[in-house]
Amino acid sequence: MKIAIVDDLKSDRDILNEKLNQYAKCNNIKYELTDFSSAEEFLEDFEVGKFQIVFLDIYMDKITGMDAAKQIFKADSLCKIIFLTTSEEFARQSYSVNAVYYLIKPIEDEEFLHAMELCKLKPDYNVPMISIKKNGSVHSIETELIYYIDVYRHTTRIHLCNNVIELYTNFSEFIAPLKSDRRFSVCSRGIMVNFQHVKDIENDCFMMNNGEAVPISRRNKRNIQEQWYGYTYNSLGDKL
Predict the structure, then answer these.
(1) Which CATH entry fits the domain spanning 129-239: 2.40.50.1020, 3.50.50.60, 3.40.50.1820, 2.60.120.10?
(2) Does the predicted TM-score (pTM) go above 0.70?
(3) What pLDDT is attached to residue 46?
């Protein structure tokens, strides 16, 4: 995903850059950021489909953020526009370009988070969705909802927070796509756990956020623990 910040004040660009960085790390979202000090500079670089989100300061010399937004909206209506400003003077006009949000400086964390949620960004997982066949129909499940997967009496079971989906499918074949996703690890024979929902390790088990305990192979315990520590550090370390 590519994001642009268009603001003539470097200090404001730096503040927004930091907020974006923290949000992306907390939500497993990868992005490329380009910042511009003027609308003219941005419009020279702008192409249809190049940027998915553009933060636009309204009060800039020559071409204003509102004028730039009109050009963006006319050329690329899928590009999400978030205005940056020091007043609500142009709030009503923002609807004409289908702006996602209107952030007042200095930007409060709560308001910024709300703006990002409205953009409806999806985490950049290797396997965001996985298909299952149940009762003759094919359904898709968001993999971030999966706590762990195990096999019991030739039945593959997908454990969600408060629900279990049973499938008559081969366990090894079903989990194969998830092996490339760093969130998932085969922690014991016939069991794959999602590190997203692991709260702690007690004895030889992962303690899940919903209170369940998932066993860890004693033979590979050290390696599996290191995988979880690595995932936890990369995902949460910057929030501490």
Answers:
(1) 2.40.50.1020
(2) no
(3) 95
